[in-house]
UniProtKB/TrEMBL annotation:
Name of the protein: Dienelactone hydrolase domain-containing protein
Domain Dienelactone hydrolase: 15-232
Species per Swiss-Prot/TrEMBL record: Kribbella koreensis
PANTHER family per UniProt: ALPHA_BETA-HYDROLASES SUPERFAMILY PROTEIN (PTHR46623:SF6), CARBOXYMETHYLENEBUTENOLIDASE-RELATED (PTHR46623)
Database matches in InterPro entries: AB_hydrolase_fold, Dienelactn_hydro, Dienelactone_hydrolase-like
Amino acid sequence: MDIDASQVQVGEQSAYLARPVGVTAGPGMLLLPMITGIGEQLRAWADELAGRGTTALVWDPFKGRSTDNSTRDELGDLLGGLDDDTALTEQVALLDHLLGELGCTKVGTVGWCLGGRFALLLGARDHRLTNVVAFHPTVPSELRPNHSYDAIADSINITAPVLIAYPGADAAVPVADFEALQTALQSRDTGATITQFYPGAAHGYTDRSRQSDPVNADAYRLSWPQALAFIDATTA
């Protein structure tokens, strides 16, 4: 399927939009990046979704900075300055845009690392979402200085189906914290919980830069197609 892709302006923020040519309605996904920002890989994921018939809009956490033009150390410094309330306000505005001007009928969200955490936080607050997908979400039980909210505790408020992919060798999120997240999600009265556990895979295993390790590459080959099928099933 042919797609249109470009940087767009949504209110005061910039975002990356990929959508099928000629489609004025249909499913949508809000993509929440990892430390790479809207780098080449995030754009490729958005383009892939658009090629499957899903409008994809990508939040820009670092305001034009990404692995295209910055080092990971520089982006890491910017990460420490992200404010939860500001980020969530921006994400809600993008969700409004998907459901409003872009005409999407059902919209979910998918995030990686820091974006996986925000996918959970957004899902807990905005029940318009039809799914929440979180790859190796950065949700340590000990909150970081710039974190205002506990994604593990807040996840009980998500009403949409959730898919979580967790790497067993995640140095950023201990297994006990993943188990606490899984327990919280499974305590909900509504919304299916699908959890995936990849022994030996590292935090950020979906990042191309980490897939020279065959364990990470194998985890990605298994988890990404399942996420696509989950997105299709929940936005159809």
